[in-house]
Specification:
Elements lengths: L11 E8 L6 E7 L3 E12 L7 E7 L7 E5 L4 E4 L10 E2 L3 E9 L7 E10 L3
Antiparallel strand pairs: 1-9, 2-8, 3-6, 3-7, 3-9, 4-5, 4-8
Length: about 120
């Protein structure tokens, strides 16, 4: 999914649903348009992931897989804010850039649903 660019001044976002079935994979959240600034992000966990020992999420780009967030907790319901956004070198994107997320939920996970979100502002061409 490519990010939209509305004609009004507003914050835009990418979102992607993940579940326990995504464990061990890297999903594409969406693509940030060229000349955008990433503001905030995180994951809203609606059903806690129940893997045996590890239930985490990294959010970033192909070049920097945890540039926006590192090991966010998926085992607790709530809105878990990205912990690397404030100091990310990836905040300004000059070319269209895919946002990716690595989902880790170990062993016999049988539950877990969450929504990854990344807010951005397109600066225009």
């Amino acid at each position: 999914m490519s990010g939209q660019q509305y004609h009004q001044n507003m914050v835009h976002f990418l979102k992607k649903e993940i579940t326990f079935a995504d464990a061990g994979t890297t999903v594409t959240v969406g693509t940030l348009p060229a000349n955008s600034v990433v503001l905030r992000g995180g994951v809203a966990v609606t059903v806690a992931f129940d893997g045996d020992t590890t239930n985490t999420l990294d959010i970033g780009t192909v070049a920097d897989p945890n540039g926006f967030a590192t090991v966010l907790a998926l085992g607790t319901i709530g809105n878990i804010v990205a912990d690397e956004m404030a100091t990310s070198d990836d905040a300004l994107v000059t070319v269209a850039t895919a946002v990716t997320a690595a989902v880790v939920s170990t062993a016999s996970a049988a539950a877990g649903t969450a929504y990854i979100w990344v807010e951005y502002v397109p600066l225009g061409n």
